[in-house]
Write a structure and sequence with these properties.
This protein is mainly α and about 500 residues long. It has one domain: Up-down Bundle (Growth Hormone, Chain: A). It is built from 21 helices and no strands. Helix 4 packs antiparallel against helix 5 and helix 12 packs antiparallel against helix 17. The protein is globular. The two termini are about 30 Å apart. The C terminus is likely disordered. GO terms for molecular function: carbohydrate:proton symporter activity. Its main location: membrane. It is a multi-pass membrane protein. Belongs to the major facilitator superfamily. Sugar transporter (TC 2.A.1.1) family.
Length: about 500
Amino acid sequence: MTILTGRPLHWAITAAAGCGFLLFGYDQGVMSGLLTGAAFTAQFPEIDTTAGAGGSASLQGTVVAIYEIGCFFGSILALVFGEKIGRRKTIMAGCLVLCVGGALQACAYSIPHMIVGRIVAGLGNGLNTSTIPVWHSELMMAHKRGKGLSIELAINIFGVMTAYWVDYGMSYVDNESQFRFPLALQCLFALLTFALIILLPESPRWLIAQDRHDEARSILLALLPVVKNVQTDDEPVNREMSEIQHAIDEEREAAHGNSYRALFKNGEQKFFYRTMLGIGGQDAYAPSIFQNSVGLSHNLSLLLAGFNGVAYFLSSLIPIWIIDRLGRRKLMLFAAAGQGACMAVLAGTVRNGSAPAGIVASIMLFMFNFFFAIGLLAIPWLLPAEYAPLAIRQRAAALASASNWIFTFLVVEITPVSISNIGWRTYVYFCIFNFCFLPLIYLFYPETQNLSLEQIDKLFTGGKVMLHWKPSMGDAVNTNRSELIEKVEGQHIEKSGV
């Protein structure tokens, strides 16, 4: 039984998940501000691409992008081992591996040394990003799951913003700590996430799948707002555990005992369809890297990146209050349309090339981040955990995470080449790419607002995928947990004499 219970436990779980994604965000942002620093370029002249330096832009791109390859293989490791060892142990392993990678980068004195550190850190981050959203989703109540994941991703952007400002502050330091301290700081966040996870419970759904029912029951009770008035044999708790077990039995039967093969099969449970929806959502995440495509002076670019990070973070707070009210589909459609419009304007302003057009282009990058934060920041990490059934949830989420990292790597690699060769037309095809998501989201992505993970299974079960929950299927809220919460809180009020 965990020491914390009720709402403090929920906040602790969200804090741990957020800390893991703060680490993810910090890792994503920290390197960009170091590449043109005086101490960094002095230590690694092979990748010094400042005017007249003669360093290799291709090698610099590899040093930056190799992190995504590490993340990709980390996600594959989660796919293979995550379901066997559980959510918590996978996250803790990811934190330790990432800590080693951060230390290797911080003490690097050569390019090969730095590359090894980047790959190792990526392996750890791949394990974390594949598993944390699944663990978090399986511990959240249905009507707060979207809010919880939105908080997690807002903290992720806070990590990006932190990296930008740490880089900016350290740029005034005239020694090797200018880049070694920001790289070493990753280890602090990794160790903090590890320490928090040790104190927090395993996913009750994973425990039930492992036939560890007593532990799962204790955790489900601990997650209630008031625990002391509830008995372990309370009927709603039994009903919820029975519902989870029933879903597990159906999924195991549909998977025929092979969860790897089930990823690529449809059948009654639509496993392949649901896996591909999670992968498709992650592909929309890759264009966020365009915030690095504006070429300015080193100091001004760091400063602008810092303010961009602040605006991005503030935008990421908005879904916390609206995702469970408006739903996933509306926010994704809004974001894809807004991003497409930003890319269209960006193409026109870059083609124009004038100073006023450059100002508009910079505003478009800020606006792109705004739309992205509203509808495509948290949701692509949430959907794989929501859409995938428990029998393949860890592996489907890992596959979705792997797809994110490989697509991000490809975009990082091709964008400079594309801009160099076809210029403003690069933004045209990314405009088209964003608008293509509109019919795909509208036609194929079911709404999961206020549905339990077991209720979401019912949207995919049968001959036709249901895009919305119908009243004939019952209450769209997680009735078992809500009924128990109301009962417990009612008992608490009655005993308090309120």
